[in-house]
Specification:
about 140 residues, 7 helices, mainly alpha, about 0% strand
């Protein structure tokens, strides 16, 4: 299996883990009641993993975008997703009239979301790790050439 497929598979699997966390442990998602896992959140300390979706989504989006761009423009992939995810996290601080300047779907996301500093830290750490993976991948490619 070539390295692009391996990286893509890792990114997609991590993305699925993040989505699974949302479905199973973020309230008030009904899936947690369907599967009977709503009490796992406090019983197993899963509340401490609230940053996990932000981390895996950022990491996955950067890698998948970089691969989709034929492993070029890594700066675009890194900065684009860093800015998008950071701005959406900061947007959750906004309240009141300012939300009227955004389309309804974005305003509702901001209004119903909760800003979490650990999500912002997770986004930045995931960005740094994705950058490291990209640089390592390019170094390995150059070593083989």
């Amino acid at each position: 299996m070539n390295e692009d497929r391996v990286l893509s598979l890792v990114a997609i699997l991590l993305l699925m883990i993040g989505i699974g966390y949302y479905l199973l442990f973020r309230t008030p998602i009904i899936a947690s009641y369907w599967f009977g896992v709503q009490e796992w959140h406090s019983r197993f300390g899963l509340y401490t993993l609230g940053w996990l979706p932000s981390f895996v989504h950022q990491f996955s989006f950067v890698l998948l975008t970089w691969i989709a761009l034929d492993k070029t423009h890594e700066s675009f992939a890194i900065w684009f997703w860093l800015m998008v995810n950071s701005l959406f996290e900061f947007g959750q601080v906004l309240k009141g009239e300012v939300l009227g300047y955004f389309p309804n779907v974005i305003a509702n996301y901001f209004k119903n979301g909760t800003f979490a500093g650990e999500d912002l830290v997770a986004i930045w750490i995931a960005t740094l790790i994705a950058y490291g993976v990209i640089k390592f991948n390019k170094k390995e490619k150059n070593a083989r050439a």
